[in-house]
């Protein structure tokens, strides 16, 4: 096992839900497959790659986990679909010369230190065509995983839930807006929250921002 994510993905349950997020399906409906390729950063088992490839988009995915990438490939093949997949840190996007019409980072950016997250946002901006859409989620500072060992101002390694032992950096709204301010215009920012049960049945609060941004600076408001 090369990293903690390989171990997580090796458990069957982690990839059991292959339904795309409504946040992705609703916003991608406004981007035609002919507009250009779509990049999924931290693609995991490929639920959004499968959805988008089936709709006719040319899809590219990166992930740090070999196990995730091989599951994504397997899931695509089940439907006779394909994607360009590459093992890569989120802040090193390897598809030079490809200009993406949209990029997704769903439940991914939190898994790095703030400086790495900023590098990732810069790399995604670089890879997008002007006006390209960026759909990103960011865990808020009210999420239950703000617990365990604190390794940075807003970064923790929590020992609870399915991602126990994984590093997470959390965002309040000013930090989320500041992260995108240099390269993007935020078109929509919403908080999604809910309760879930973890480990031995403990009820916990999950909370994250769903952000739709476009490449290029206008007025980021608020
Ligand atoms: C919670 S999963 C989300 C997967 C997928 N985006 C989805 O919505 O199903 C987080 C993903 O981020 C990947 N990841 C974590 N750290 C990464 C890094 N530094 N570079 C690239 N991918 C990373 C993990 O391997 C994992 O696939």
Explain the overall architecture.
By secondary structure, this protein is an alpha/beta fold. It has one domain (about 5-140, about 170-215): Rossmann fold. Helix content is about 25%, strand content about 30%. The chain has six helices and ten strands. It has helices spanning about 5-10, 20-30, 45-55, 65-80, 115-125, 175-180; strands at about 40, 60-65, 85, 100-105, 130-140, 150, 155, 165-170, 185-200, 200-215. The strands form two sheets. The protein has a seven-stranded mixed beta sheet with strand order 3-2-1-4-5-10-9, with helices on both faces. It has a three-stranded antiparallel beta sheet with strand order 6-7-8, with no helix packed on it. A hairpin with a 3-residue loop joins strand 9 (about 185-200) and strand 10 (about 200-215). About 40% of the residues are buried. The model has no long low-confidence stretch (mean pLDDT about 95).
Brief summary:
With 222 residues, the chain is an alpha/beta fold. The chain has helices at residues 4-10, 22-28, 47-54, 66-78, 114-127, 173-181; strands at 38-41, 59-63, 84-87, 100-105, 128-139, 149-152, 155-157, 167-169, 184-198, 202-215.
Q: Provide the domain count.
A: 1
Spatial shape: globular
What average pLDDT do the residues reach?
A: 94
Specify the CATH homologous superfamily.
Vaccinia Virus protein VP39
Number of helices: 6
Residues in β-strands, percent: 25-35%
| Secondary-structure element pattern, one letter each | HHEHEHEEHEEEEHEE
* Low-pLDDT residue spans: none
Helical proportion, percent range: 25-40%
Which fold name fills CATH's third level, the topology? Rossmann fold
The small-molecule ligands in this entry are:
S-adenosylmethionine
What's the CATH architecture? Answer: 3-Layer(aba) Sandwich
**Biggest sheet, spatial arrangement of strands:** 3-2-1-4-5-10-9
Structural class: alpha/beta
